[in-house]
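WARN retry 2 of 3 for item q-0093 after timeout on previous attempt; input resubmitted unchanged.
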Amino acid sequence: MPAGMDKNTSYKYEENVRNSMNDCVLLSVIMSVYNEEKFVGDAVESILNQSYSNFEFIIIDDASTDRSVSIIEKYADARIRLIKNSKNQGLTKNLNKGIQLSKGKYILRMDADDIAFSNRFALQVKYMEEHLEVVLSGGFMKTFGDTNEVFRCATENDLMKINLMFNTVSFHPTFIIRRDSLEKNKIGYNENLRYAQDYYLIYELSKIGKIANIPEILIRYRVHSGQVSNEKKYEQKKCADFTRRCILEELDIKLSDEKMEYWTKFCLLDYHPITDSEREKLVEVKNRIINNNSVKEVYSPKILKEVLEQRMREYMHVAETEMRNVRSDDMNSKYFSLFKLMGQWVRVLQQGKSVADYFEPQKNYEIAVYGLGEVGEILIEELKGSNIKVIYGIDRKACTIFSDIKVVSPEDVLKKVDMIVVTAISYFDIIKEMLEKKVDYPIVSLGEILDALEYSER
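OK item q-0093 returned
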């Protein structure tokens, strides 16, 4: 510290020296552009106005058909290197091209529809210069446009590596990467992945060094209807699943397509009512991960177990809540359907008609009734004394139902009759499909009979 400086002046002096040294580090900023005329100007200006100024700005236009190129060309700044593709290559190839063209010590990502805060580069360079063991880092982001939220993520390497099992752990537009880590290890974006390419890249880098996020908001992330994440969700999920499978295979775990579907929903916290079978399979996968890792020690065994157990408990708790809600909704729907059916039946009776009128008069019919709850009992009672004879009833609870007619289970051999009338309020199509595999005579719902009677002349 020069003579005569007080502590405050000394701090500012040392900070200026540190900033001056950092500013000697060349950065390579890579941005791919395709038809972003609405937003690209804001993105470019946010880079050119960074407080840290020693960078090259590699912009790759991916054969845009709008005014994107002409807007970029208006910025007369020597740091801009504009590359124009003659045909569309896609984001993944463009990012690899940008890496190959780059000269900087660090590579930074930028999207053409986002806005970087003016201190982004200064914060990220300072962090990477002070943490030489970190090969890639990112940061937080604040959304704007259709939403206004702050997105945060884990910041510590061990937890981030475990969370990679579920999804990417750093926001792609905030990446800063050591270029020599890519070159020495021959790592780049996987060009087989059109989407979620950042997820696989950070996974690959996590195997050769530490990853991190700094607890600072670095960009304003624009949310709008035209984004990849809204238009191509299925393809994005498929590409992300490739990385999830690679992570599991590192622990010698290969999943069937069915188990992978369950695992992906768990990873993405796709809350939904789950079956007992799905629950068992998820617990099995979780236990295999914990057990295999105890041998291979890819992750901290203690942290891995804590993370998986807590996540599984929360997921199952919400799933149980969803299941209760669905059951409640199903019950409400069932009662509504029942009241609707009974109301229609009353209207038919008020017209002086009976269910027996549905059948051809002066001809004896033998039928079976599927469903011997209250509706089924009422139907049987109404048909007594008519030309329609109920030969037997069909019900899954056959052994517990007491009736003056024979009751069999749907799984039993069904005696031939002229027709089966289904009184079940819900799932008629499923019941009909099941019965059609066993019988070759008509299967009609009570609702269909009442519809025909209500709207027909006597």
